[in-house]
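To the team - pyridoxal-5'-phosphate complex, inputs and output below.
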Amino acid sequence: MSGKLDLDPVTVRQARSLARKAGRPIVKLAQQHTTVSVERATLRLAGLGGADAEGTPWVNRLMDAVRADVGLEHGVALPVWDALARGEAEDLVTLAQKASAGSVRFRHPEGRDAQRARSASKRAVGGGIRRIDARRRERDRLIKKHGDAPRTPWIYLIVATGDIHEDIPQAQAAARAGADVIAVIRSTGQSLLDFVPEGATREGFAGTYATQENFRLMRAALDESSKELGRYVRLTNYASGLCMPEIAALAGLERLDMMLNDSMYGILFRDINPVRTFVDQRFSRQVHARAGIIINTGEDNYLTTADAVEAAHTVTTSQLLNEYFAKEAGLEDWQLGLGHAFEVDPAVPESFRLELAHALLARELFPKAPLKWMPPTRHMTGDVFRGYLLDGFFNLVGAMTGQSILLVGMMTEAVVTPWLSDRDLALQNVRYVLDAAGGLGEDFHPAPDGLIASRARQVLAETIDLLDRIVHDSDQAGDPPLLAAIADGTFGLMKRPPDGGRGLDGVARKARDYYNPASELLEEK
Amino acid sequence: MSGKLDLDPVTVRQARSLARKAGRPIVKLAQQHTTVSVERATLRLAGLGGADAEGTPWVNRLMDAVRADVGLEHGVALPVWDALARGEAEDLVTLAQKASAGSVRFRHPEGRDAQRARSASKRAVGGGIRRIDARRRERDRLIKKHGDAPRTPWIYLIVATGDIHEDIPQAQAAARAGADVIAVIRSTGQSLLDFVPEGATREGFAGTYATQENFRLMRAALDESSKELGRYVRLTNYASGLCMPEIAALAGLERLDMMLNDSMYGILFRDINPVRTFVDQRFSRQVHARAGIIINTGEDNYLTTADAVEAAHTVTTSQLLNEYFAKEAGLEDWQLGLGHAFEVDPAVPESFRLELAHALLARELFPKAPLKWMPPTRHMTGDVFRGYLLDGFFNLVGAMTGQSILLVGMMTEAVVTPWLSDRDLALQNVRYVLDAAGGLGEDFHPAPDGLIASRARQVLAETIDLLDRIVHDSDQAGDPPLLAAIADGTFGLMKRPPDGGRGLDGVARKARDYYNPASELLEEK
Amino acid sequence: MTTLVRPYGDTTGDGMVQISFTLPVPHSKRAEGAAQQLAAKMGLDPALVVHAKPMGPDYTFFVVYGRVHHLVDLDAVEVVERDYPLLTPKEVNAAIKRSLRRRLVVIGACIGTDAHTVGIDAILNIKGFAGEKGLEYYREIKVVNLGAQVSVPHLVDRAVAERADAVLVSQVVTQRDAHLLNTREMSAAFGEAFRAEERPLLVVGGPRFDEAMSGELGVDRIFGRGTTPGEVASFLVHRIAS
Amino acid sequence: MTTLVRPYGDTTGDGMVQISFTLPVPHSKRAEGAAQQLAAKMGLDPALVVHAKPMGPDYTFFVVYGRVHHLVDLDAVEVVERDYPLLTPKEVNAAIKRSLRRRLVVIGACIGTDAHTVGIDAILNIKGFAGEKGLEYYREIKVVNLGAQVSVPHLVDRAVAERADAVLVSQVVTQRDAHLLNTREMSAAFGEAFRAEERPLLVVGGPRFDEAMSGELGVDRIFGRGTTPGEVASFLVHRIAS
Ligand code: B12
Ligand code: B12
Ligand SMILES: Cc1ncc(COP(=O)(O)O)c(C=O)c1O
Ligand SMILES: Cc1ncc(COP(=O)(O)O)c(C=O)c1O
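Output:
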């Protein structure tokens, strides 16, 4: 699956090097800051779970107390393990309880105390990392035992009832009907919560809360299904939002297999502060890298607010940036589920061939990445018959261009969150297309100067232009150029200034003596 | 659109020469016989229309009377115009009326009487032929005036209410919605009637009777639509059945534009006697040739009773035979709407690519013929969503292989005769596929040894085998080998012996002094 | 298991259904209101008109989603359940041999102007259907398949001539209730031609029959969509040879 | 034109409709009977179950076609028709200038956890919708677009601070009636924060609202699917500046 477009390798290299240029200052920025969620994730890796009677997680309670006493800039680890060493409590939960009752005071340890806290915290967090490692080995073992998805693209289906106990049978039914990957859609609003809810939940809107317990329940259910079906069924959830690092940690601990994790989605679509996002993103991806989790990026979303033809190059640009950030965080090619979508207005002449051009460009730019191919949403209407047809042609593009992860489209996209029957009909659609036309790639050879190849070249050229503009962008504060570009509305037509958005108050520039055992362990390897 | 399969020209020539070999004895047979319907068509061309009070057409009345007196083998012309010359009646209708009242006796004129009858009949029939010629010129004029269909494939839609007055608004609505060709489906059972009903009719089952008046009404309505829409909208009906020659004459007189006319459909699917069919077919095609009508053959039907993969080569074989018979009857390449269909079981792996192979084979074997591409019917179920999808992929094969006439498939195929909304949805489907993927042929290049090219070669090879078996077939009566092959169930799994089936009693071997002015005029040119 | 259920969209008991239809009115807000009214009369509440498409100047097509409050009472469902045992071909043959001491004679046909023979052939021809051989395969059944477009008088004549035990008739075209008209004509003709005790068993089949209508149509049994030859053979034995 | 109509399949008055739904029962003849029963309760007679597909061991999906006998009475259709004149931007500006003598202040937001801004942006942003410019384009309208996921208290505060004449709220997510809950919360909060005469005009919009529910939800107007900015501007002028 290479060379159908005959892309110029020099141009491709140029695109990557521009992405690196745009990304590097952001990485630096991320290295220089920490966030409340990074610190809470560290506590979670050290084994602190649970919540108080009001549902506020202990990690939040503890973090807030530490911050109140010594600030965020040194990290949570030294003050916490110093307190433990000082005998303030026998374990983390007790410490958190006492802290929230106001009966512990934290300090920033120095010298040998600091040394002692450092090694204790590293030991504790190391336990969590080892659990993640064990989960990863377990996944490998189960895949070997049950077998993997029978073919690519993997068939990726969502469940979204809002109630984990309705989600589970629906997910199992979907797996039985052929899904290789189940994604549990999250409740609206969760991404703006600055804490991760606890326990099994039944009250989500248009999605189910991401909680450790929900992760566990669903993973166990799908393990059952994997056994029954003789193939390992993957589970996906969302890292995005104000708690990216923590959710990434929980996903690793509960053996999720994929996570939605985009470098800019939170900024653009949830108005989360850009610095907060980039810091959280880097940490969360380091955790995913360790956990062997495949990330799913969110370029598809751009095309729900911007036009899919005009903005095609912003997708490519974002893919290159996501790739750069991901690799910098330690993810390997096989973990890069870069997103893109079938969102060209069906009324545009040759829309299908434009989709082929875009999809093939992504395929050939990222030949080893498990691309995530998203179905039409924006131009779906209440005409469910037309919708079913569009989904079929979306599936066909997926088959013809060798996409890796096929997010199954629903005919009721413009109407309701998917019904049981929608999912069944959608799978029937996918199966027909893959079985009947799966090999059509063999006969698909875009004419060298035909519409498809020209269009792909054009999008790549526009990408380079845009990246070039980004690396030369600037703002008065002297922020990294990518931040300035985001502020200008470059992506998805959303303008997000570096000092705007939610969660900025959870960011701190690291002090010189900042210490985080998780980062140390994750970067070691 | 040529050379994608790289067919061996020697093999192609061999196939055609075998078809000629199989067809020639049948043509001879046809030349040696006449039928009641050929003779009645001759009377219709001479201007005899109308029916008696019971609805029996005057042509039937007159024919039966002549036959009772002098037999069929001399033809109807000489006895009839001899009677007129003898002053038995002043015109054909009166003669028919008297004849059915038993007040005329017919004789077979000899010598100068015969000469006189011959020229009188030729003059009379010549009038009808001239009307057909005028209608053809009128069509050319209207196409020039209004414009032709904007692109290929032509979009071909059926109406089938059973009531001409419901058909008309539906046909006009369909034209407005984009149909280039309207076909009025015929009532069940009409093809077995040995007469053509008269007048405007409202009582068909699953189709509307083919009558001269219905033809006229619908053509007038579509002329109106053509004017309104600025493109000439074509009208199709069915010649097939026991009255093929007469309906062909009426179609020419009423400026229909296409006619269903297959060399073997009547034999196989209506159990009409093979000799009757071949004789009627030849005459009717001579009329179509003169009228500038495009024929639609019926190979698609084979795949409703036989398996579309196993029997693919019977379609190709029949196409070659239909081509041979058509050209022998004077039709030109642009008039050969050879039929084929998207009927491979969707559950067969690579079914879509098999369809591509079959459709491309037809396209490349008959590069100048306006191929008629028929939608899935057999594997349609009550799952209308799935049906809508299959129709989309059918449309795509049509676009990718350059089909000329696209018979629009309906999602309710397995449920009801098409509803107004089915037709609208179906057109939306066609439009999407043609607009979005119409140019995909540019990028479609079957790998030389890939599945598609190999499959096409295989079908062609099986065709040659079959034709070879046909030309070497024989039966005890010494019938032409093709008749023997039909008796063996070679086509559509139907076994039809040469002396079985309906309508045999309407066939006669021509006497030495047989005369038919219509044949003479039609063969002159 | 409870015997009262509701449609299931996304959660138990949500009652969600989809409907589509055309109204002979030009598209407008009022037309959408009319669609809503119809949906309400069908029991949808709330009813969401999610798609309205003008088809020419006089018609509008609608897609509606909504919740119905009707309960489906599984206990009240009346279906023509198979009330006879399903036999293997061997058992069928044995039963016929035992009780009739001659071959059972079956005549098959598509009557009226219906020319759809695939269905009746699926029941009669050796080739069969869904992996089951057709009745011709049964040693103890004599099959006379008359094919398509057989007139009722001709069918009666042949039934008399062949001393048929059962007459199997297929009807696929249902437009304007063609299948019902033809079936009634057929059963009436057999009623006239035979004394009640001597009348052959009358069986009709086709994909769009309502299996519960046999009484109304004057036949002994109706077989619908997806019937297999084994079911038919078992029924014949049950009624004629046991 | 007659005011009583029926659905149109293929001929006038045939009453034909299509429905589909899932029942939480394993596939069986009984299940098909259950589907038939539901269709009958919806008024289909005859009802033809043309497709039944098992979805796992516990559910079956059905497609049913049939004739409904309900009549649609066009006269009885109640729709929220536009009861105000449609103005051009020029006329809107002129009317505001004339009657308010200051700019009309509009606040827009997606409230609750809803983050679908495309709809409200289509109404507010200059770019507009369906070829019409959005309210920002109107010289005499001041638009404050708060964006997505705005909490109700925050919205009320801003309305007070900006002395808003109208508050425009969008709700797209409807699962578990999120849009209704949020709208009710919003109207209640405004009811508490303002005296009746001083309360800004409350307008909500989104593709799945029932436009007839404004009374029930305590708002002044609901706009549905396909609303254009001009309609909204004209309504505001009609209610505030005339
Ligand atoms: C194949 C086919 C044809 C072939 C028939 C070839 C042949 N020799 O049979 C051809 C191409 C000739 C044909 C022609 C026409 N057809 Co046709 N055809 C079909 C098609 C595609 C499939 C039918 C089929 O073979 N099904 C497979 C068999 C195995 O299933 P079955 O018939 O249901 O049989 C099963 C059961 O019902 C039962 N069964 C059936 N009969 C009996 C009898 C007994 C005694 C028993 C026990 C059981 C039994 O057992 C069988 C096995 O399970 C359908 C559409 C569809 N996908 O269903 C249209 C369809 C049936 N045809 C239709 C029409 C209208 C026609 C025409 C009238 C169109 C026209 N005006 O030209 C013509 C004329 C035919 C005529 N005079 O009757 C309509 C009928 C509409 C309606 N509901 O009234 C359909 C539904 C298509 C459509 N939507 O318009 N057709
Ligand atoms: C674009 C889109 C998104 C984008 C939104 C980007 C953005 N900035 O808005 C993204 C990708 C972020 C997104 C995310 C989600 N989405 Co979304 N999304 C859509 C989509 C594809 C199109 C909506 C749209 O933009 N329509 C175009 C606009 C112009 O139309 P409109 O909203 O109807 O607005 C018009 C009128 O209604 C009216 N109007 C609307 N508001 C107002 C307000 C006023 C005052 C007035 C006067 C008029 C008015 O005027 C507008 C112009 O005519 C729809 C599916 C579809 N095809 O409809 C799903 C859809 C709305 N999304 C849905 C869901 C569930 C989600 C998620 C919750 C999924 C999840 N759990 O992750 C998330 C989270 C979002 C959240 N927290 O709310 C569901 C809602 C299901 C339901 N009925 O409850 C839908 C229907 C898809 C589905 N079938 O599941 N989504
Ligand atoms: C990368 C990414 N993250 C998260 C989400 C879901 O967003 P949220 O849970 O914030 O509503 C999406 C949307 O599909 C996405 O693409
Ligand atoms: C060539 C041809 N003739 C006639 C028909 C229609 O048959 P009839 O009118 O005999 O039922 C068909 C079927 O579609 C056909 O393909």
